[in-house]
Structures are given as C-alpha cells and as structure tokens.
Amino acid sequence: MRSLVFNLLFWPVLVVFALIAWPVAFTPWSRGLKAIMRTACRTVRALMKWVLGAPVEVRGPVPTGRPVIIAAKHQSWADGFLMMAVMGDINFVIGNEISKFPLIGRIVRASGATMVNSPGLTGAQGALADAIKRAADDPRPLLIYPEGRLPEVGESYRYRKGVHLMYETLGRHVVPVATNTGLRWPQNRWRKHPGPAVIEFLGDIPPGLPRDDFLPRLKMTIETRTRALEAEGQADKEARS
C-alpha cells in the first residue's frame, strides 16, 4: 500500500515541478531554476520518508561546496533526486535517456548539467569533453555515475573511462559514494519497499593516479562498501518481516 500511495503522489509532484521549471528554463534565471530543482528533490526525499517509509540516512562527510568529483553507485531512479537533496547546488553528468521525458531535457540542460550517451543511445557525442572544459572553472562538486547505467542490487558494470578522464584532466579529488537505494526503490520499477536508504560518502581518492590504478581502486572502494550496505539493508528487511 505504501508503494502504491508513493507512486500516486510522486508522478503528479514531478509533473507540477516540471511545469513550474520549464518556462524558467527559457530565462537566464539559473539560480531560480536550480532552486526549483532542489525543492523538487527534497520533496521526493520527504515522500520517501513519510509515505514510503524509507528515510534517507547520510553517512560520512558530505563534500558540500568542495570542487571534487563525486563518483557514485547508481542503483535507483532515486539516486539523482537524493544526491541533489543532500548536497544542494551540484553540477552533474547524466545520460541522455532522461531527455525522453517531456520538458525534462530542456530543464536539465538549462541547469548547467551535461547529457552524455546512455548505453544504446546516440546524440550526445563530445558532451563529456565539453563538460570537463566547463567544469574547470566551476567550483561546484561534479557528480558522475561511473557505471553509466543501473545495475541490480548485488551487481556491477564496468566502470567507464570517462570518470578517469575527468579525474585526470581536472586534477581533482574523487569522493566515492556507496548506497543501498536499490533495496528501497529498485532501478525504475513501480514497486518499492520501506526501510532505511543509506548514502555513504567515502574517503577521497587524491589526484595523480594512472588509470590502471585509479579505476580498480574506485570500483573496489564503492562496490565493497555497497555490498556491506546491501547486507545491512537486507538484515533490516528480515527483521521487519
């Protein structure tokens, strides 16, 4: 029942915020647009807590205001909403699959975010290189999902070279992020589940590592901690049943 009520509220709320943000996306008022997006994301977080019964627990030091690259595990449609709800004003790289939703593509681009090719799609070639150039003068944290897609809970995909290109070119610290959001809001599925949703910010990876050292370290850091959070979340689910 919680899942049904959440879905019945989530989509109308998203439509309302999109209708508010869309005309603003045609103006130079980027601060207002970002404020609308942050409010939408915080509303989703509130719905998860009060309707779905999936409060979001944030662990580790949140790198708000630091010019870092945030490399995060991506298990759920909730992830992007929650990261902006937690961190506020961030820059981010997102797959161009999001543009299939009416109004959203324009809003995302106007916010300063960068669309890159989602697996199996085309139309955003060169976008990552452009994002790196723009990010060089942008002090905001820059969010990227290094797998580029949504794995099932307990699984992972290859970590793509784009995250190392950003790391190498910008010379920034990388903050890995682990999560178990897929236990509560699996990928993009209709059915969702109550229980704590954890987002954990892990220790920085300093700049300067070659790709063959950086990518395995990043993947091991994120995946090891994600498996631990999944096990913790599964134990909580069993305790509730």
UniProtKB/TrEMBL annotation:
Annotated keywords: Acyltransferase, Membrane, Transferase, Transmembrane, Transmembrane helix
Any GO molecular function: 1-acylglycerol-3-phosphate O-acyltransferase activity
Spans through the membrane: 6-29
Domain Phospholipid/glycerol acyltransferase: 68-182
CDD domains: LPLAT_AGPAT-like (cd07989)
Short name of any one Pfam family annotated for the protein: Acyltransferase
InterPro entries: Plipid/glycerol_acylTrfase
Keyword Hydrolase: no
Single GO BP term: phosphatidic acid biosynthetic process
Pathway: Lipid metabolism
Keyword Nucleotidyltransferase: no
PANTHER family xrefs: 1-ACYL-SN-GLYCEROL-3-PHOSPHATE ACYLTRANSFERASE
Entry protein name: 1-acyl-sn-glycerol-3-phosphate acyltransferase
